[in-house]
Design brief:
The complex is a heterodimer.
Chain A (H helix, E strand, L loop, with lengths): L3 H10 L7 E6 L4 E6 L4 E7 L4 E6 L6 E5 L4 E5 L6 E6 L4 E6 L5 E6 L4 E6 L4 E7 L4 E6 L5 E6 L4 E6 L4 E7 L4 E6 L5 E6 L4 E6 L4 E7 L15 E3 L5 E5 L5 E6 L5 E6 L4 E6 L5 E6 L4 E6 L4 E7 L4 E7 L1
Antiparallel strand pairs in A: 1-2, 1-28, 2-3, 4-5, 5-6, 6-7, 8-9, 9-10, 10-11, 12-13, 13-14, 14-15, 16-17, 17-18, 18-19, 20-21, 21-22, 22-23, 24-25, 25-26, 26-27
Chain B lengths: L1 H20 L1 H21 L18 H31 L1 H6 L5 H30 L5 H26 L8 H14 L7 H7 L1 H9 L1 H13 L5 H21 L6 H5 L1
The chains are: A mainly beta, B mainly alpha.
Organism (chain A): Shimia thalassica
InterPro entries (chain A): Host-pathogen_enzymatic-act, N2O_reductase_N, PQQ_b_propeller, WD40/YVTN_repeat-like_dom_sf, YNCE-like_beta-prop, YVTN_b-propeller_repeat
Keywords (chain A): Signal
């Protein structure tokens, strides 16, 4: 019995094992829903500023940045306690942002101001504002951190920003209403989705030349409703999963041939997505149906839809 | 015990022979659900997905949703087909010959029921094989766990056919059975649309659907295909099977039922 006491005491005070989580921003509820990947259930709901959309974690996952669009701020939250640590000056109506690989500079698209704001998360100050096209939205940074991309919804362009000089060095036309941009992990390609155009344009990073375009066609769905938005690559970069908005489907695209291989039925108006740590599961945010669909990546099948708050939008992994 | 087994084997073998001899019937029985799947379901909001109701955990296409209902359709129509052939047997006299066996009447009828249900199950599995080729697949365990559900649902619908056959005096009356039994049973069930969808248009229709034993047979099959168990569907289906079997036994009782009426 004597020997048991320290053991039991240690157990009682040990912190519970934390499994990986998916954090989802709920636009209409002003909250974040936290989904436990092991149980596929919502385990926490945390209040945020108004209309949370973009969400990303710091490199060490000690902080989570949330774009509170209608509060005109980026909130910095402690993911353990759920408390807002402080807010960052973000410019007006921040929608999407991206954290530079230096883990310090946030590149924020300010939809109403037609600028990209660069914020130093340590000094909590704006260090640059770069004029871009009208209604900037999609943001990406190359893996080497040298190039930042802003897509502007109305100008229909991808703006290439030199992160050292913080000036535009190229602008490339894409199809109507570009909303999301991602570099491949090697950084050799930039993909930009165009919501109204219904396409993804693929650019060669070195030359900024367009090298391909992906179109989508969902059986039984009017082409106007096939609106590509968020997308993510698998680790081997052979497949990209693309959210197709109000078509309620996610497309699996062969990233080498740029051919669509599968369409997976998810909830209504799918926006963005995040992978589990081993990339075996993909979590898509379905705005209108207010849930998150879990996709088995290997089988390319939806396995469950989890109710979250109203109008879920952004998603981020906390391993 | 041996005579019971002999009779069982004899009746099943007779049904099997009849089945082999009527390959066109087998194909026709498959064409019906396949038309529903390929034409009706494909053209009918196939891409939109239905709201989530158990056993589904996520959105499902309409084509996927109606597969269990179409399995039920095969069992239902086969139950009726078997009822038709019972009426035919009765008119030809072979039924009378069968019922003169010294074994209990309930056993003879049950053997007949089991034989026709086995044929139906074979057709359902063929249908599920074709749907798998069409792209609608279930987990391997689902194909196994659906077997008892198909057996119970098949026995219940076969018992319905048996009960009806005891009241149909002539082969010509069978069209009436189609109009008044099969179609209402099929359309007023969860085979083609979930019950919540019915409730949206009419609470009364929803209640009728919820009381329809065919709904529960379909739900039993649906849950089993996804490796899940639905207790209330099982109780409803078994209860309906027992009641219908009792009616059939009563109908085939020479002192009271159809035999006396037929003179």
């Amino acid at each position: 019995m004597q020997r048991l006491i320290p053991f039991v005491t240690a157990l009682a005070f040990a912190s519970p094992a934390i499994s990986a989580e998916i954090w989802v921003t709920n636009e209409k509820d002003d909250t974040v829903s936290v989904i436990d990947i092991a149980t596929l259930e919502v385990i926490r709901t945390i209040e945020t500023g108004e209309r949370p959309r973009g969400i990303t974690f710091s490199k060490d996952f000690s902080k989570v940045y949330i774009c509170a669009s209608d509060s005109d701020t980026v909130q910095v939250m402690d993911p353990v306690t759920g408390n807002i640590l402080h807010e960052l000056p973000s410019g007006e109506d921040p929608e999407q942002f991206v954290l530079h690989p230096n883990d310090r500079h946030l590149y924020i698209a300010n939809e109403d101001d037609a600028v990209t704001t660069v914020v130093d998360t340590e000094t909590r100050s704006v260090i640059a504002q770069i004029n871009v096209g009208i209604e900037p939205e999609g943001m990406a940074v190359s893996p080497d951190g040298k190039i930042a991309i802003t897509t502007s919804e109305t100008t229909n362009m991808a703006h290439w920003i030199d992160t050292e000089t913080r000036e535009l060095f190229a602008n490339t036309l894409v199809d109507s209403r570009p909303r999301h941009a991602e570099f491949t992990a090697g950084g050799s390609e930039l993909w930009v989705s165009s919501e109204i155009g219904g396409t993804i344009s693929v650019f060669d990073t070195a030359s900024q030349a367009e090298k391909g375009k992906i179109s989508f066609k969902v059986k039984g769905v009017h082409p106007d409703r096939v609106q590509p938005v968020g997308f993510e690559f698998t680790d081997d970069e052979k497949t990209a999963f693309v959210a197709l908005g109000p078509s309620n489907h996610v497309a699996a695209v062969n990233a080498e041939t740029l051919e669509v291989e599968d369409y997976i039925l998810v909830g209504r108006r799918v926006w963005h997505m995040a992978f589990s740590p081993d990339k075996s599961l993909l979590f898509t945010t379905n705005g209108v149906s207010g849930d998150v669909t879990v996709i088995d990546v290997a089988k390319r099948e939806a396995i469950k839809s989890i109710k979250v708050g109203r109008f879920p939008w952004g998603a981020a992994l906390r391993p | 015990m041996k005579p019971f087994v002999v009779v069982l084997i004899a009746i099943v073998a007779r049904e099997a022979r009849r089945f082999v001899g009527q390959r066109s019937r087998f194909i026709a029985a498959l064409i019906r659900p396949l038309l529903w799947l390929v034409v009706f379901a494909a053209g009918f909001r196939a891409a939109l997905g239905l709201s989530i109701t158990p056993p589904y955990e996520t959105y499902t296409t309409y084509e996927t949703y109606i597969v269990p209902g179409l399995c039920g359709m095969i069992l239902l129509f086969n139950g009726m087909q078997s009822s038709l052939s019972l009426v035919y047997d009765r008119e030809m006299g072979s039924m009378r010959l069968l019922l003169t066996s010294p074994l209990p009447r309930w056993w003879l009828l049950f053997c007949r029921l089991l034989a026709s249900t086995s044929i139906s199950i074979l057709q359902v599995y063929t249908f599920l094989g074709i749907t798998a080729l069409y792209g609608i697949r279930f987990e391997a365990a689902g194909y196994l766990s659906v077997l008892p559900a198909l057996l119970i649902a098949g026995l219940m619908l076969g018992a319905l056919g048996l009960a009806l056959s005891s009241f149909i005096k002539q082969l010509e009356n069978f069209a009436g059975v189609m109009n008044f039994v099969i179609f209402p049973m099929f359309f007023l069930s969860s085979a083609l649309y979930p019950l919540w969808k019915m409730a949206e248009s009419s609470e009364l229709l929803h209640d009728i659907c919820a009381a329809n034993p065919f709904t529960h047979a379909v739900e039993l099959i649906r849950f089993a295909l996804y490796g899940q168990f639905n207790m209330s569907a099982l109780l409803w289906t078994c209860g309906a099977a027992l009641i219908l079997l009792a009616i059939a036994l009563w109908g085939y009782d020479p002192a009271r039922g159809m035999i006396r009426r037929k003179g």
